[in-house]
UniProtKB/TrEMBL annotation:
Major enzyme class: isomerase
Enzyme Commission number: 5.1.3.1
Pathway(s) served: Carbohydrate degradation
Coiled coil (residue ranges): none
Positions annotated to bind substrate: S7, H63, G139, F140, G141, G142, D172, G173, G174, G194, S195
Annotated active site: D32, D172
Catalytic activity: D-ribulose 5-phosphate = D-xylulose 5-phosphate
Record flagged with keyword Repeat: no
Gene, per the UniProt record: rpe
Organism: Streptomyces decoyicus
Function (record text): Catalyzes the reversible epimerization of D-ribulose 5-phosphate to D-xylulose 5-phosphate.
Binding site for a divalent metal cation: H30, D32, H63, D172
Designated name of the protein: Ribulose-phosphate 3-epimerase
């Protein structure tokens, strides 16, 4: 089953509670946390996540684009995050961090920038609940999808299948009605969509349409029956 996670980075920050309710049919609500150090942008922090978690029944999927996630990740779980993604490029001890996230009751997820290969981290995969392949350079919404990431998505899906893991494979960046089928065919099953959802006249319908496209592409590709 394809999961659609609308990104509130593309929402109206003055109306976050309303914007969260506008996509209540979504599987998770993707929340980008940027610190203006790891990436050149600044978004929101623990207090906003805590308020948002109280304003919606949709579980929060936190994407930490920050330095020192080993220190900060636990605080976001306490604030209400159901899933926490840290960047392997920023983590001091990714295995220890993944285990701590899981121990605190959240899904542990690891993100890779476009230039970071998956192969060196093959042995870490059993420690994770989800892996995020960035399909743009992290830091800003609205960027164009990088087609050159499709082979990396395929290689990652092959590694997951080879090890027989129940590991979600998320893509984030430029996901839209024009690109989601290619991502699904390559092996992704969780899709972060920002402007494709919040830029639509009916965000809830956009979520449903994206999910349908992804599931059709997955069925045609056939990899979905491998796990």
């Amino acid at each position: 089953m394809a999961l659609i996670n609308p990104s509130i980075l593309s929402a109206d920050f003055a109306r976050l509670a309303e914007e969260a309710r506008a996509v209540e049919g979504a599987d998770w609500l993707h929340v980008d946390v940027m610190d203006n150090h790891f990436v050149p942008n600044l978004t929101l922090g623990v207090p906003v996540v805590e308020s948002l978690s109280k304003a919606t029944d949709t579980p929060l999927d936190l994407h930490l684009m920050i330095e020192d996630p080993d220190r900060w990740a636990p605080q976001y779980i306490e604030a209400g995050a159901g899933s926490v993604t840290f960047h392997v490029e920023a983590a001091a001890a990714p295995v220890r961090l993944a285990r701590e996230i899981r121990a605190k009751g959240a899904r542990a997820s690891m993100a890779l920038k476009p230039a970071t290969p998956i192969e060196p981290y093959e042995d870490l995969l059993p420690e994770l609940d989800m892996l995020l392949i960035m399909t743009v350079e992290p830091g800003f919404g609205g960027q164009a999808f990088l087609d050159i990431m499709l082979p990396k998505i395929r290689r990652t899906r092959e590694l997951i299948s080879r090890h027989g893991l129940e590991l979600a494979l998320q893509v984030d960046g430029g996901v839209s009605a024009e690109t989601i089928e290619r991502c699904a065919e390559a092996g992704a099953d969780v899709f972060v969509a920002g402007s494709a959802v919040y830029g639509a006249d009916d965000p809830a319908k956009a979520v449903r349409d994206l999910r349908e496209k992804a599931e059709t592409a997955t069925a045609a590709a056939g990899w979905g029956c491998l796990h």
